[in-house]
Amino acid sequence: MKLYYARLFSDRLDGDHGLPRSRLAELVREFREVQAEVRRRRGAGEYGFYGLGDQAAAVQQIRRFAEGVGQAFDHVLVLGIGGSALGMKALLNGLRRPAWNELDDEGREFFPRLTVLDNVDPTSVAEALRRMDPRRALVNVISKSGGTAETMAQYLVVRHWLEEHLGPAASRHLVFTTDPGRGALREIANREGIPALEVPPAVGGRFSVLSPVGLLPAALVGIDVDRLLAGAREALVHAESDDLLRNPAALWAGLHWAADTTLGARIHVLMPYTDRLREFAEWFRQLWAESLGKARNRRGQEVNVGPTPVGAVGPTDQHSQVQLFMEGPYDKIVTFVALDRFPEDVPIPAREDLPADLAYLPGHTLGGLLRSEYQATAAALARMGRMNCSLHLPELSPETMGEAIMFFQLATGYAGVWYGVDPFDQPGVELGKQLAYAALGRPGYPPEPTGLPQGDVSP
Fold it and tell me: CB under 8 Å to 300, separation ≥6 — which residues?
């Protein structure tokens, strides 16, 4: 994986916009303390996701389950929300064939279909259950705390559905991924003998896709988890460098922080030029937003900082958001994600009746057209003074996916230091949870007024 970042600087844009080249030298000097702080905090027990590159025991357990009990099912239903769901959707979208659930058994190489329920929308849940045969479904319930309201509500609905059809055998269709020692899911697993994998205590949900949270369902659908972790280790090796220019995750984070805090570029766009990374951009949005959007810094001072992440897909969004990126406010950085090689390509055929103004297309391929459109969009943005950079993946494989996931997790950890905030908490999310619990009458949460305010209503 390579990071191309020259088009973040004014000397590669229009001369009036972008970072001054001298800012890079300043970031290089500042990085010494940033790296030192990351190491101090790792030593204090933070940054637990660094340990995900080495999980021999967990991988062995996952492989044993996937190759044993997991072979008895032809549909895996994942119940989770946020970090317990978005990462797995990115893995499925990126590393399995498109329209995976629509393929027949042979097209899926006899691996199961996969459905991820990451919402409690009753229509979605009801339709998902109607499409599945409970006798052939394995349900993976994922909640680190074991008490996430949405996930546990899903669990109660799905458990009832299984018991209606299977009776006492329902518990044999369940596997949990949760905290190793506490929480409601761990209690149920211990009481009923339900298999339960561990979420490492030091790894937060949005950093957990390369833990059993994502690795178990990935293995069940045939994704090589050893190769995923090998790619993650590659990113971790680069992150040990104290030279900012040789530490791409720290460099990407530092440049985005500098553009945000000195130029007002507070909108950070991730724009892959492949449909297969569409869900990856969604995963990135949670990671960047929930980690860095904070009211207070590490010293308790009110700062209200945080960039706004935006997902886009090329070339679809060339006909949608790019008009704004090109001519709107100078408040954005676009990071393109491009593949050097596609697993297959499709030639554009010639026709005798082709109008003259379309004669340039035959002789090319769809992959070549995609590559040309990415390069042209990046160059056009630069000509208009719009900052952009590119991450190039040689191909989309378990190794490159694992490296890309770890790259952005590392970048998020570094960005927390650049911004001076704790990237591992989410107090704003917790407040919403508490108000929801109160509205539902959960013990320990006194009711507060919620719902729509009265008096200012438009028909």
Answer: none
Read off the pLDDT of each residue in 72-88 and give the average, rounded to a whole number: 95
The string over 109-136, giving b where at least 16 C-beta atoms fall within 10 Å of a residue's C-beta and e elsewhere, is eebbbbbbbbeeeeeebeebbeebebee
Note whether residue 311 is domain-resident: yes
Enclosing H/E stretch for 171: none
From 378, 372, 279, select the one nearest 322 (Cα to Cα). 378
- Looking at the fold, whether 234 and 379 belong to one and the same domain comes out as yes
Residue 319 designated active-site:
yes
Counted domains in the chain: 2
The DSSP secondary structure of 400-455, one letter per residue, reads HHHHHHHHHHHHHHHHHHHHTS-TT--HHHHHHHHHHHHHHT-TT------SPPSS
Q: What is the CA radius of gyration of the chain?
A: 24
pLDDT of residue 455: 65
- What totals of helices (H) and strands (E) does the chain contain, helices first? 14, 12
pTM for the predicted model, two decimal places: 0.95
> Quick one: 37 and 126 in the same domain?
no
> Can you give the pLDDT at residue 147?
83
What is the residue-averaged pLDDT of the chain? 94
294 classed as catalytic: no
Closest listed residue to residue 249, CA positions, set 404, 420, 23, 429: 404
**6: Cβ–Cβ under 8 A, 6 or more apart, which residues?**
12, 389
Assigned domain for 295 exists? yes
Residue of 150, 279, 282, 290 marked catalytic: 290
Distance CA 335, CA 378 (A): 9
Q: CA torsion angle for 244, 250, 256, 259 (degrees, to 10)? A: -30
Residue 360's contacts (CB-CB under 8 Å, 6 or more residues apart) are none
Give the strand pairing for 137-143 and 75-79: parallel
Q: Catalytic one among 17, 364, 392, 433?
A: 433
Q: Residue 182: which CATH number?
A: 3.40.50.10490
Query: Is 433 an active-site residue?
Result: yes
- Is the confidence at residue 453, as pLDDT, over 70? no
**Domain match, 208 and 247 both:** no
Same-domain status, 383 and 357: yes
Bridge-based pairing of strands 332-339 and 267-272 is parallel
**Exposure on the CB side of residue 343, measured as CA atoms within 13 A:** 9
Out of 319, 344, 352, 448, the active site residue is: 319
Structural domain for 305, as ranges? 2-43+229-424
Q: Residue 114 is which amino acid?
A: L
